[in-house]
Design goal:
By secondary structure, the protein is mainly beta. It has 3 helices and 14 strands. It has one domain: Pnp Oxidase, Chain A, CATH 2.30.110.10. Helices cover 11% and strands 39% of the residues. The two termini are 21 Å apart.
Length: 188
């Protein structure tokens, strides 16, 4: 039986990412679990960021940001970046930083198994609590150790998700082949 509960975006799992931006000339990092992708031919991320976040200033000013996919072994630093504000803490040395050739204002994290440099293409402000930043991915870097058949292997990346219970959760196992299992579907 379905029951009505508190209205909330229960998108499960909610992947954890670290958004990076230059703020006043220094790298700053924000842990975020409100992120999505849009499209593959022109790959983009959509990041929902609360208006008070310090990182927003750098994204808006530089029209650039990074999206870094952390692994489970980075969880303490990831959580720290979500707990501390750049207004009060210098987070520029939490990670080893590098920059791609396309954007010199999108600080990326060397330790992250997957990292993306994004050009800000649109900022949506609904006039309430959050900005939506849409960024086109200009460059993607991966640690070569996490590749299987030239694509990132989820079991090697070890990404994790955030849940409303205030815990981080590891990603589960493969249980079906996409674009194949549906062939077995039969209408009742």
């Amino acid at each position: 039986m379905l029951v009505k509960i508190r209205r909330s975006p229960y998108l499960l799992p909610k992947p954890v990412a670290i958004v990076g931006a230059l703020v006043d000339g220094k790298p700053n990092f924000l842990t975020i679990a409100d992120i999505s992708t849009t499209g593959y031919k022109i790959p983009r991320f959509v990041v929902s960021s609360g208006k008070p976040h310090y990182t927003n200033k750098g994204i808006i000013e530089n029209k650039a940001f990074s999206v870094n996919i952390p692994s489970e072994n980075m969880v303490a630093a990831v959580d720290y970046c979500g707990m501390k504000s750049g207004y009060n803490e210098d987070k520029s040395t939490v990670f080893e930083v590098f920059y791609g050739k396309e954007l010199n204002s999108a600080p990326m994290i060397t330790e992250a198994p997957i990292t993306h440099a994004c050009r800000l293409v649109k900022t949506l402000d609904f006039g309430d609590t959050h900005y939506l930043f849409i960024g086109e991915i200009l460059e993607t870097f991966v640690n070569d150790e996490i590749l299987t058949n030239r694509i990132p292997d989820i079991k090697k990346v070890l990404p994790f998700s955030f849940h409303s219970d205030n815990h981080y959760w590891s990603v589960g196992n493969n249980f079906a082949q996409a674009y194949n299992i549906g062939k077995k579907y039969k209408k009742n």
